[in-house]
Amino acid sequence: MKPWILGLTGGIGSGKSAAAEHFASLGIHMVDADHAARWVVEPGRPALARIVERFGDALLLPDGQLNRAALRERIFKAEDERRWLEQLLHPLIGQEIASNLAQAQSPYAILVSPLLVESGQHRMTQRVLVVDTPEHLQLERTMRRDQVSEEQVRSILKAQALRDDRLKHADDVLLNDGDLGHLHQQVERLHQFYLGLRGGQP
């Protein structure tokens, strides 16, 4: 039977990566949308050629890889450039995710994406799990992990889907306000529940 797809999302510093890793350690096939976004612009892939054609060689690093920082800078200031890039990349990222999910051998597979709701990627899934964390913990964890200022974290939080929007799309919510052991217990409980679902629905 074809595995059903669980969408896993959460704001920055919510612990969604730690949750995803634990699902993976239980034998669940996992696809990370961020990785797919990186693969589609690897050297030799058509998307990179199109980006260079539009923005010039200045966006390449000496080894031929895409200079992400330069690209971010470029589209940050220009709405139409950002839209052009999204129209180029979103379908390719979608294809990359779909072909990777199609390789899943586990009873269900997971699509991890910080922008699951905003990007419309939730439409590729049968069920959505949101890892939710009180904002003060998100701030603390992200500042500690990325060595960035509170101001920077707040601006990232603002750009991501509002917590309420994310929660509106959730079929399940994992409240991550304890330690890693507590997170793992909740993942294992959900995993047992998911194994009993057909097509992601009880």
Automatic annotation (TrEMBL):
UniProt cross-references to PROSITE patterns, sorted A to Z: DPCK
Localization per record: Cytoplasm
Pfam families linked: CoaE
Recorded superkingdom: Bacteria
Pathway(s) annotated for this protein in UniProt: Cofactor biosynthesis; coenzyme A biosynthesis; CoA from (R)-pantothenate: step 5/5
Broad EC category: transferase
Recorded GO CC terms: cytoplasm
E.C. designation(s): 2.7.1.24
Keywords: ATP-binding, Coenzyme A biosynthesis, Cytoplasm, Kinase, Nucleotide-binding, Transferase
UniProt-annotated binding residues for ATP: 13-18
GO MF annotation terms: ATP binding; dephospho-CoA kinase activity
UniProt KW ATP-binding keyword: yes
InterPro entries assigned to the protein according to its UniProt record, in alphabetical order: Depp_CoAkinase, P-loop_NTPase
Similarity comment: family membership: Belongs to the CoaE family.
Alphabetical list of HAMAP family matching this protein: Dephospho_CoA_kinase
Role played: Catalyzes the phosphorylation of the 3'-hydroxyl group of dephosphocoenzyme A to form coenzyme A.
Alphabetized NCBIfam families for the sequence: dephospho-CoA kinase
Name by which UniProt lists this protein: Dephospho-CoA kinase
Originating species: Pseudomonas nicosulfuronedens
Organism lineage: Bacteria, Pseudomonadati, Pseudomonadota, Gammaproteobacteria, Pseudomonadales
Gene: coaE
